[in-house]
């Protein structure tokens, strides 16, 4: 019981620190689109490029609507550690109740669009965290290089994925479980200028 209590207090302390940091930044006139705790770092993103947001909208619009819940801006719970990253897009099979935070292993797809400055975290840190937490598929979109990388089949103890498929912008992304055999059209994905 002592361990779970200290974990809870650590999570509560981190959450409170993030809220205080956000309030301080806003009081000084800073605006930002995302604040997340990644390892021992707190990352504040001042905003995303429109190419980033457009890619997320394109993917969200292509995932079948009939039985999927597609959400942005939600904390993701990890089984591998107490940190809660905020993926660019989360696809789950059932709607979430208001305020709920999905578990990585219960998702169908996690999507990250690489930013120009923080790309290493998406390629390395989040890939390891998502795999170790059992996220079935992780789709990494890199507008810097014009590539899409689909990681499937988490190998939890190693923090890696059994299958890695890379496609370039313009080629369809195949093999996504949430697409029911369909593919994601990337012909209108834009690279960063």
Derived structural class: alpha+beta
Mean pLDDT: 83
Distance between the termini: 52 Å
Largest sheet: 6 strands, mixed
Query: Count of DSSP E strands?
Result: 8
Helix content: 25-40%
What pattern of helices and strands is seen along the backbone?
HEEHEEEHEEE
User: How much strand content do the residues show?
Assistant: 15-25%
Low-confidence stretches: none
Shape: globular
Widest sheet, order of strands? 3-4-5-6-7-8
Radius of gyration: 17 Å
Number of helices: 3
List the helices and strands and how they pair.
Elements (H helix, E strand, L loop, with lengths): L1 H26 L6 E5 L2 E5 L4 H13 L6 E3 L17 E4 L16 E5 L5 H14 L4 E6 L4 E9 L4 E9 L25
Parallel strand pairs: 5-6
Antiparallel strand pairs: 1-2, 3-4, 4-5, 6-7, 7-8
Question: Can you describe what's shown?
Answer:
By secondary structure, the protein is an alpha+beta fold. Helix content is 27%, strand content 24%. It is built from 3 helices and 8 strands, in the order H-E-E-H-E-E-E-H-E-E-E. It has helices at residues 2-27, 50-62, 119-132, and strands spanning 34-38, 41-45, 69-71, 89-92, 109-113, 137-142, 147-155, 160-168. The chain has a 6-stranded mixed β-sheet. A two-stranded antiparallel ribbon has the order 1-2. It is globular and about 45 Å long. 28% of the residues are buried.
